[in-house]
Amino acid sequence: MSRGAPRWAAEALDDVLTRVAATHREVGPRFPLFADPDSGRWTTSARGSWTGGFWAGLLWLRARHSGEAAHRAAAGDCTARLGCWVEADTATRGLIHWYGTALADDARSAALRERAARACLAAYDPRLGLVPWGGAFGGPRLVARVDGVPGMVPLLATVDERAAASHLRTHLELCGVDLPAWEYGPGGWVACEAPPPGWSRGRAWLLLALADRPAQLPYVLDALMPDRLVPLADASRPDGPLDTSAAAITALALLKLGRREQAMAVLEELVHGHLAATGRLLDGCYDLDAGTAVRHELVWGTFFLAAGLAVVTGLLDARAV
């Protein structure tokens, strides 16, 4: 544990990684998506969907924490299974392949990251100035969505810094603070109805994407700063659930920006207010409109909480992820 790190952060990281080990035993070669708040039972995916990289990232973080060869091998095997997404038509390849490989230290994962980066660069549309959202999950493909920005920017930057900067700038100029998605059509860009303007992860994803390049649009950076420690899943529904996953994303972004005091306040609220003794971060909201996993343990929420705790305890450099 680094000097000055609070004991609660180290203990919470131990609890979260103990839960990761239990999850790994439960899901085997499948990928966890979200777990029931009462039973703790995971809903899983064979290929990982858009969240697979976060599970691989958690396994790499466990390997770094334990130093055990078996944990490193398990993380490498999980990352290799993300190869099925390299050619998929989706901007979430940034989330999948950046966060699935950023903490890896093996040649196989590095090769996968390079393949994925070049595939994403091939999908870059210079006319629109971005990698489109894509049609892999259905719906129109010429869409700009905030969750297609984090991960994609550092992934593209490994092969083409100008494409990475353009992808970020275009999304920031379109989405601003509260318009998470736009569709391109004959008349140009039109704002989409979903996700809604008050979507919790809208600001969080953009803040994370901007954290490595805060000079790109500094006025947007200030506007994206959180106004509460754990946001509502939908700001327009004050009686609705919270979204701890958005808070965890924000905490890591704040650490990357050097705003440690703000980040620590968020992390402390998550640990003391929403982390079960079994290492489960509860009160995450997957999809409020669809009623899917609205108060659940979410694999990406766990990843960002674990990464934030790893940074404040000295296990991880914020610039590594």
Topology:
Blueprint: H1 7-27, E1 31-35, E2 42-45, H2 52-66, H3 69-80, H4 93-99, H5 107-123, E3 143-145, H6 152-157, H7 161-175, E4 181-185, E5 188-191, H8 200-210, H9 218-224, H10 244-256, H11 260-274, E6 297-298, H12 299-312
Antiparallel strand pairs: 1-2, 1-6, 3-4, 4-5
Mean of residue pLDDT?
Answer: 96
**Low-pLDDT residue intervals, each spanning 5 or more residues:** none
| CATH topology group | Glycosyltransferase
Main sheet properties: 3 strands, antiparallel
**How much strand?**
5-15%
CATH class: Mainly Alpha
**Backbone shape:** globular
Question: Within the largest sheet, what's the order of strands?
Answer: 2-1-6
N-end to C-end Cα span: 19 Å
Number of strands: 6
Number of helices: 12
Q: H/E order of the elements?
A: HEEHHHHEHHEEHHHHEH
The name of the CATH architecture is Alpha/alpha barrel
Secondary-structure class = mainly alpha
Radius of gyration (Å): 18 Å
- Number of separate structural domains: 1
What percent of the residues sit in helical stretches (DSSP H or I)? 40-55%
Can you walk through the features of this model?
InterPro entries: 6-hairpin_glycosidase_sf, 6hp_glycosidase-like_sf. The chain is built from twelve helices and six strands. With 321 residues, the protein is mostly helical. A hairpin with a 6-residue loop joins strand 1 and strand 2. Strands 2-1-6 form a three-stranded antiparallel sheet. Strands 3-4-5 form a three-stranded antiparallel sheet. It has one domain: Glycosyltransferase (Alpha/alpha barrel), CATH 1.50.10. Helix 2 runs antiparallel to helix 3, helix 10 runs antiparallel to helix 11 and helix 11 crosses helix 12. The two termini are 19 Å apart.
